[in-house]
What does this fold into?
Amino acid sequence: MALTPKTLARHELCGLHARVATADNPALAGIEGRVVRETKNTLSVETDSTDSGVGATKQVPKTGATFEFALGGESVAPADVTPADPEAPETVHVTVEGERLVTTPARRTERSSDSTWR
It folds into this structure.
């Protein structure tokens, strides 16, 4: 199954660029970077490098947060972005409520087509 905005919640999230759009804890809102680890209840996001040249990893609870994932280049299925359209964005931003992601990554990605994770 191709990674599309509609199927994002059923795919592996590690490696995707993510931003915490909203969170119950205001200190977590705005965290942005690459997803480096996922557990049943959290996403670990590695932020861009700091002055010391090392990025920090922030652990964000899925419950109570809304995530925005950036899909671009090879990660977006051709059906979602028509290459012939000069106005088509190169990066597609997909917003997902964290509650939709609360389960182990293996269970979420192995669901059949009649899954509630669509």
Remarks:
- Residues 74-84, 113-118 have pLDDT under 50 and may be disordered.
- The chain has one domain: 8-103.
